[in-house]
UniProtKB/TrEMBL annotation, chain B:
Organism ancestry: Bacteria, Pseudomonadati, Pseudomonadota, Gammaproteobacteria, Cellvibrionales
Domain of life of the organism encoding this protein: Bacteria
Protein name, UniProt field: ATP-binding cassette domain-containing protein
Domain ABC transporter, first and last residues per copy: 5-221
GO cellular component, one term: plasma membrane
């Protein structure tokens, strides 16, 4: 048989090898040096800290937790309202474009933007989460509505759009799906809220960063444990009937916001974010400035971001291949419960935090970012793969051990594993950009430094470029498998 | 001679439902036995129980085939001997087929008409081809006893009969569930009829006629005549 025929009959393997080759080609361009020679000693100290959590000031811990929850609640409430309305008009292209643009910008970038005119206020924190989440909700709600049968609505109100008909039919039909999706998204909002602490908002992340930086691992561990407990117990305290009460409390708990200065906001939108030449009407000069910025900063940073995400994707693939058996009953029997717990633990830790910890261990390079992305996403896909593995119908005389893994499980699960990883690639790309805030030379690094230098024009251009990159990645992963997105989100919720 | 498998008053319940009731039968080494009966009669469950008792001594060819779609025909056949070889060698074989086993599998698949397909992934094969791969895998296990659950149902009767002869020749003992009464009579020396989880008859093939079996499938009791 011809060689091309061989590859054509193995589409998944050839595509996976293509991605592996891309990752290998990218590797020499990334700085993956080990800047700290002995990470094990520090790792030992962190491990010790995790076992002996300690917090001296209970009041400040409680306040950080409350703020984290309050930001998440307020943001999700706003986003549900906005996303719900937008979902009804999602078939109009301007709405689709606006939603794609808002969700293409990461919460942290929104936070950095809003900070310029709202300062370190509650409004910054809430909007930073609410805006991208509105875009996400609009699309997912629209998808869910579209899946419902239109028959009941046609029966009630043929040919007419009425709110009550909508509530009684489409909304009612989609309700279980909506609530389970919202639960999962609320968990994401909690993670985002915690992470916003890294840019200075008073959430758990703020204290985590300073505790880790000071090497006070016992204190950092305490915060981490509180955060894990918060997420792990979500299903018990996030009761449907209590949510309105929580939201009400959340609005009062929020830290004080200084009054919004409309003139400052106006100035920012009309002046600060545009280059000097453009403001002075020198269009040729503006074009030259943009061309220079794009070739000197945007393209190299974007290329670095893409390459980093490719290497992280390949690393995540390796993680999944070797990690999924630990949570699969057919492989390890009852021990799978422990493996399962470990994967949930890994998955609940935000990438930024993982990367931050690795940064402390191995020094500033692309390595901590790759490790964090590979472990977090690899953990998530491993969980889903292990679940699938336990559902496979195996013959009564199936093999065991490595033979089972190599001849039955991996070949059977590979297409799904690969599709899930490609779906996560989009997420990895978003996160790669954001990890720049920690000092890796991805887009986020240049955004952060542009803000630090008050170069709002450059920051705005970089954020726009990041958004475009994310939209492109989104389009690619949509083409891979559209149905998988929701399924993966819904499955991840159950972890 | 002592029996290979002996069931006495065997009853199997699953989920509160009685799947096999009071089955007594003994299979001696060297017997070629066909299990017949309408679907849902308990043939697969009886085969499963026999397999459980024989364990490693029997080669299994299940109804769902249990092939791995992504792997090539060669690898699917090779899988029958996974346990006998070193795991690292097995891993190596996934990427670089071992010369010895490759030759053995080629020889084995020649008469089954699979030799030209060895490097193709099973996913692209037809139903009949897949069934032959599963048969080849069972044969490659090189066990004393063959247990097959409708192993030739996707093949035409002529080819099916030829393959059953090969399987019978390659194994000392064979227990095969079949849907086709003619094949059961022509290629086996003992026929067991199951209906509703109960043993309806257990007779030498020579004492049964095609008409009697056809009547049995229709729900009649002509085989008693």
């Amino acid at each position: 048989m011809s060689l091309t025929g061989f590859w054509r009959e193995r589409p998944n393997l050839s595509r996976a090898l293509l991605f592996a080759a891309l990752a290998l080609v990218s590797l020499p361009f990334l700085d993956i040096e080990l800047h700290r020679p002995d990470p094990w000693q520090e790792l030992g100290r962190i491990g010790l800290g995790l076992l002996q959590p300690r917090w001296d000031d209970a009041a400040s811990l409680a306040q950080a937790v409350l703020y984290t929850l309050a930001f998440a609640f307020c943001a999700v409430t706003l986003a549900v309202a906005a996303g719900g309305v937008l979902a009804l008009f999602y078939h109009r292209w301007p709405v689709r474009v606006a939603c794609a643009a808002t969700r293409a910008v990461h919460e942290l970038f929104w936070g950095l933007l809003f900070m310029q005119f709202f300062g370190l206020s509650a409004l910054t924190g809430v909007l930073a989460i609410a805006l991208p989440f509105s875009g996400i909700f609009a699309r997912v709600f629209a998808d869910i509505f579209a899946e419902q049968s239109t028959l009941p609505r046609q029966v009630i109100a043929p040919g007419r759009v009425s709110l009550s008909a909508l509530c009684y039919t489409t909304l009612a039909q989609a309700w279980p799906q909506l609530t389970s999706y919202l639960r999962y998204r609320f968990e994401c909002a909690l993670r985002s809220s915690a992470i916003l602490g890294f840019i200075g908002l008073p959430t758990v992340g703020f204290h985590l960063e300073s505790a880790f930086r000071q090497g006070d691992y016992a204190e950092a561990a305490c915060l981490l444990w509180v955060f894990y407990v918060m997420i792990a117990t979500l299903r018990w305290w996030l009761d449907r009937r209590l949510i309105p009460l929580y939201c009400l409390i959340a609005f009062f708990v929020l830290p004080p916001s200084p009054p919004v200065s409309v003139s400052l906001l106006g100035e920012f939108v009309t002046r600060d974010i545009w280059p000097l030449a453009l403001r002075e009407g020198d269009y040729i000069g503006a074009l030259a400035w943009y061309a220079q910025e794009v070739t000197r900063v945007v393209l190299p940073a974007a290329a670095y971001t893409v390459m980093l995400s490719l290497v992280a994707l390949a690393a995540a693939g390796v993680v999944v291949l070797f990690l999924f058996p630990i949570a699969s009953r057919v492989c390890v029997g009852r021990l799978a419960i422990a493996g399962h717990a470990l994967l949930v633990f890994v998955r609940s830790t935000p990438e930024l935090l993982l990367a931050f910890v690795f940064l402390l261990l191995v020094g500033p390079s692309a390595l901590p970012a790759i490790l964090a992305l590979a472990i977090h996403n690899g953990g998530l896909v491993s969980y889903l793969t292990a679940r699938e593995a336990d559902r496979l119908p195996l013959r009564a005389d199936h093999a065991h051990g490595i033979n089972l893994w190599a001849y039955e499980l991996v070949p059977r699960l590979f297409p799904r594993m690969f599709a899930l990883l490609l779906y996560r690639w989009e997420v990895m790309m978003r996160e790669s950009a954001i990890l720049g805030i920690l000092g890796v030379a991805t887009l986020g690094f240049y955004v952060d430094s542009a803000f630090a230098q008050f170069r709002m024009d450059r920051a705005f251009l970089l954020i726009a470029a990041t958004a475009l990159l994310n939209i492109a990645a989104d389009a690619v992963s949509q083409r891979v498998n559209r149905g998988l997105r929701f399924e993966a989100d819904a499955l991840a919720r159950d972890c | 001679m002592s029996a290979l498998v002996e069931l006495q008053g065997f009853t199997l319940e699953r989920g509160g439902q009685c799947i096999l009731r009071d089955i007594s039968l003994a299979i001696a080494p060297g017997e070629k036995l066909a299990l017949v009966g309408p679907s849902g009669a308990g043939k697969s469950s009886l085969l499963g129980e026999i397999h459980r008792r024989l364990g490693e001594a029997a080669a299994l060819c299940p109804q769902q085939l249990g092939l791995v779609d992504a792997l090539s025909v060669y690898h699917n056949i090779y899988m029958a001997q996974l346990q006998r070889r070193n795991s690292l060698l097995n891993l190596w074989n996934l990427f670089f087929p071992l010369a010895g086993p490759l030759r053995e599998v080629e020889e084995l698949s020649q008469p089954l008409g699979l030799a030209a397909l060895l490097r193709r992934p099973v996913a692209g094969l037809s139903g009949g081809e897949r069934q032959r791969v599963a048969l080849a895998r069972a044969c490659y296990a090189q066990r004393e006893t063959f247990l097959g659950d409708e192993p030739v149902s996707s093949l035409d009767p002529e080819q099916g009969g030829e393959l059953l002869d090969r399987v019978n020749a390659a194994h000392r003992t064979a227990v095969v569930a079949l849907h086709n009464p003619a094949l059961a009579l022509a290629h086996f020396d003992r026929v067991i009829g199951l209906r509703g989880g109960e043993l309806a008859f257990d007779r030498p093939a020579a004492s049964l006629t095609a008409a009697q079996l056809a009547d049995f499938y229709r729900g009649g009791s002509g085989w008693q005549a």
